[in-house]
Amino acid sequence: MSEVPLAKEAADAAPPAEDLVVLDKVNKHFGALHVLQDINLTIKRGEVVVVIGPSGSGKSTLCRAINRLETIDDGSITIDGRPLPEEGRELARLRADVGMVFQSFNLFPHRTVLDNVALGPIKVRGQDKSLARTRAQALLDRVGVGNQAGKYPAQLSGGQQQRVAIARALAMEPKVMLFDEPTSALDPEMINEVLEVMQQLAREGMTMVVVTHEMGFARSAANRVVFMADGRIVEEADPHQFFDNPRSDRAKDFLSKILAH
Ligand SMILES: Nc1ncnc2c1ncn2[C@@H]1O[C@H](COP(=O)(O)OP(=O)(O)OP(=O)(O)O)[C@@H](O)[C@H]1O
Ligand SMILES: [Mg+2]
Question: Do the record's keywords include Electron transport (predicted)?
Answer without folding.
Answer: no
